[in-house]
Amino acid sequence: MKKIFLALMAGALFASCNEDFDDWAQPQGFEPEESQLVKFSATAGAESYDLAAIEEENIQLFNPSLQMPAGFTLQSYTAKLVNRVTDGEGTVSEEGATAIAVTNEGQAAKADVQDVVTDFFGKRPDARSLDLDVYARVVSADGKTIVKSQTVQIPIVVTPTAPVISSAYYLVGDMCGWDNDHKLAFSHSDADVYEDPVFTLVFETTADNQYWKIIPQDNIDSDNFWANPGVVGTAVDGDVALEGSLINKDAQAGKIETAGKYRMTINMMDYTYKIEPILFNEFVYFIGATDGWSAADQKLALANDNGLYKGYVYCADPNGWGVEFKFQRVAGSWDNEINTGTFTGGITGDFEGTDGGNIKASKGVGVYYVEMDLGNLTLKATFVEKMGVIGDFNSWGGDAEMSWNDQDFCYELSMPAPIEGGWKFRVNSDWALNLGGELTNLVQDGANITTSGSIIKLYPTRKTSDNIYCTVQ
Questions:
Q1: Max Cα distance, the chain (Å)
Q2: What's the average pLDDT block by block, 10 residues per block, for the chain (473 residues)?
Q3: What is the CB-side half-sphere exposure of residue 254 using CA atoms within 13 A?
Q4: 353, 356, 360, 365 alpha-carbon torsion, rounded to 10°
Q5: What is the pLDDT of residue 283?
Q6: In which order are the strands placed within the sheet that holds 423-427?
Q7: Burial class (CB in 10 A: 0-12, 13-18, 19+), 153
Q8: Nearest 5°: phi and psi at 340?
Q9: CB atoms < 10 A from the CB of 217, how many?
Q10: Alpha carbon of 128 to those of 50, 105, 151, 161: distances in Å?
Q11: Which of 245, 267, 251 lies closest to 169, judged by CA?
Q12: Is 176 exposed, middle or buried (0-12, 13-18, 19+ CB in 10 A)?
């Protein structure tokens, strides 16, 4: 088959497009044709696009101007949005490019533009500069010749649509007070609020029929605590629904009918709230590869009334399944399990989430100190690189390192002579994590232990007792 060659004339680029179109019929032979001139140019449809202010479903993305030889018609425009970045030396790099459907009039769906811009830059409603690269394809009357024009690069500025989200939020109401000195702060992850718009708060009401509203950080920063718009609440005063929509203009107060402990979750991207009564069990139970996913006999203990659990767990992988695990609220029951999806407030430290819902010990096999906050739905872990004994016997100047017994789930230390005086257990040679107190119930920051002995065993995982304990011989 003879290819059709089109020449570059008057600055316009022409190319045979056989490689761009695979929907032609079987290749046919054509006689060479004389070069034809096609001129394409375009300008932005607007100086900038604030998508929140545009009510129409389609926007005029560019204004095309196309000149074609007689007998040719426009087949389509092909466009893509490009995020180009120029460094300090003037080098331009392409950070992202996404094709976008456009009409022959130069319009695009507002939703498509929104999706591309938020994919490039995130959901924060800031003005974003990017390029629209567009070219035309024209086709001859007999459909045998398709010509692709030169690509035109059009700078555009787009502001994606998103609600106003403050950096922080505070609950005020009958349960705590209605002023700046008594507000209760919602917790939030370290992510940008437009990537993670969910805030959580655990609080308690001690009486029935308690009213509430929500104050954004912006009101506090502007020294206008009750600014309107600004204050967030329900549309109907005294709304007793435990979940629903929020508004930030002429907001009314919601109401909690029954005294108790609650977790409030607000999603400020879609302005919704959910209030859940909570009751925390005394323990949560570790289950995973360590015991073949069959035993839930290591556990964390409830440390306060707000749902904070603390303790130590030993993570292992005897069957080659990965150092992964979950937690159960009731040992042996998978109802309402605690997995990666539970911790909307974030997983930090030496644990990480997995796509399958399991939690993974990122430092591998070993003992971890765990802080699980089921009130604020966060999880933090610290890998125990060294468990040591420190005290009068070594002038509190170092740690006698213990070894882990993976059969008995305990740390062991044998001293050449009985230790004397006061002493404690310490994690990673740091006082941030230490254990002391009664041998049968060791606690964080507990009193010095004074029992003398040369063989010390520490059982930190609550596998065989509800307490962390040690033996001294």
A1: 104
A2: 32 37 36 58 95 95 94 95 88 90 97 95 93 95 90 96 94 97 92 92 93 98 96 97 96 96 94 92 96 95 92 97 96 94 94 94 98 94 98 93 97 95 97 96 96 97 96 96
A3: 25
A4: -170
A5: 95
A6: 400-401, 387-391, 423-427, 430-438, 441-444
A7: exposed
A8: -55, -40
A9: 15
A10: 10, 24, 22, 12
A11: 267
A12: middle
Peptide bond into 229 cis (omega under 30): yes
Q: What is the dihedral of CA 97, 98, 99, 104, to 10 degrees?
A: -80
Quickly list DSSP for 408-428: TTEEEEEEEEEE-S-EEEEET
What gap in Å lies between CA 473 and CA 468, rounded to an integer? Answer: 17
Q: What are phi and psi of 270, to 5 degrees?
A: -110, 5
Strand order from edge to edge, sheet including 169-173 = 184-185, 169-173, 210-216, 254-256
| Of the candidates 367, 361, 449, the residue with the CA atom closest to the CA atom of residue 408 | 367
As beta bridge partners, residue 374 has none
Collapse the DSSP code of 125 into the 3-class scheme (helix H, G, I; strand E, B; otherwise coil) and give the result: coil
In sequence order, what are the beta bridge partners of 40? 66
Element spanning 152, H or E: strand 152-159
CB 276 within 8 A of CB 242: yes
CB 48 within 8 A of CB 60: no
Q: E strands of 257-316, at which residues? A: 260-267, 272-277, 283-288, 298-302, 308-315
Q: Interior CA angle at 449 toward 473 and 307, to 5°?
A: 115
DSSP string, 125-149: ---EEEEEEEEEEEEETTS--EEE-
Residue-level pLDDT at 190: 83
pLDDT of residue 26: 36
Query: Nearest 10 degrees: CA dihedral of 204, 207, 211, 215?
Result: -30
Nearest to 369 by CA among 378, 379, 377: 379
Neighbours of 265 (CB within 10 A): 18
* Residue 439: per-residue pLDDT: 95
**pLDDT of the residue at 36:** 53
Q: What is the separation, in whole angstroms, between the first and last Cα of the chain?
A: 94
DSSP string over 83-114: EEEE-TTS-EEEEEEEEE---TTSEEEHHHHH
Phi, psi of 287 (to 5 degrees): -145, 135
Residue carrying structure tokens 């041998």: 439
Residue 384 region, left (φ>0) first, then alpha (ψ -120 to 50), else beta? Answer: beta
Amino acid at 335: D
Write down the residue that tokens 């065989």 correspond to.
Answer: 464
> For the CA atoms of 158, 116, 188, 312, what is the dihedral angle to 10 degrees?
-160
Cα 38 to Cα 10: distance, rounded to the nearest angstrom: 9
Tokens representing 161 are 């649509």
